[in-house]
Design a protein that fits this description.
The protein is α+β, with helices and mostly antiparallel strands. Helices cover about 30% and strands about 35% of the residues. The chain folds into two domains: about 110 residues, Vaccinia Virus protein VP39 (Rossmann fold, 3-Layer(aba) Sandwich); about 150 residues, Distorted Sandwich (Hnrnp arginine n-methyltransferase1), CATH 2.70.160.11. It contains eight helices and 17 strands. The radius of gyration is 21 Å and the shape is elongated.
Amino acid sequence: MLTERELESSYLGQFIPVHYHHNMLMDNRRMTGFKAAIDYLVAPGAKVLELGGGTGVLSWFAAAKAEKVWCVEYNPDLVREARTFLSRNVNGHKVEVVEADAFDYLPPEPVDVVICEMIHVAMVREKQVQVIEAFKQRYLEKFGGPLPIFIPEAMIMAVQPLQQDYCFEGYNAPIVQFREATFEQAGSIELAPPAVYATLDFTQNVAEDIRWQGAFVIESDGVVNALRFVTKNILAVVMEQSTTLDWLNHYMTLPLAQALTVKAGDQLCVSFAYRAGCSIQSLQASIRAGDAAIFAVEEQTETIAA
């Protein structure tokens, strides 16, 4: 019998199929970004822990300079695969693949760097925030401070109103879409610039609850029928160059329950509230969009009711 957490993990993405990890190996932007960040932050002779190691590739990047790497993976299929792959690669012997739950595991000794790539755009589905925050608490209780460096170090999340084409060979189907972040695809019309709605800094305490209400000034006439969510992962801060090593997730476009006709100069108010690691549907159900007057009336009504 699966526990409640195991059931939620299976549904929300912690036990994703092996072939999905193969797709991540083929994602050049992800691979080059993490390799550069790990090379920058892992010092020679360092001790490194990876939480949610998948195929073991990020642990292997760390093993190029680290003395020891613990690679924690919950999925037994991936544990076997990671051990096989690492045995075929130079420095693979420096990586110990541990079959364990990242929510519970602690290394046998203090570590210098923690890699945790349980990242989904908008921080939904995967348990990045919960795993890292739980780890911080357990680590400090066992080893005291300071905390290790985390990869990624931070995330910046933004949202943007769109007019999205949902017609597929004549078939109208408003669906959740994921698109490459490196170029624009036909069918998406940006009606206002993106707005940052949250910044997560793993050197600080990070709350699970994410709430935002903001306003966009519409730049062209159109129909707002979707919101695009953008997540920029700050993998490493390169202080001496005043720059960062980043990885941009695929854009996630969520259809609105009701489309809104807008004109240039209109103010569009948007709000949503969700918990990091929740389902996409939970985020989608919380979205409200309308003009400022409607929001003012709703807020006044809520105040009177309270």
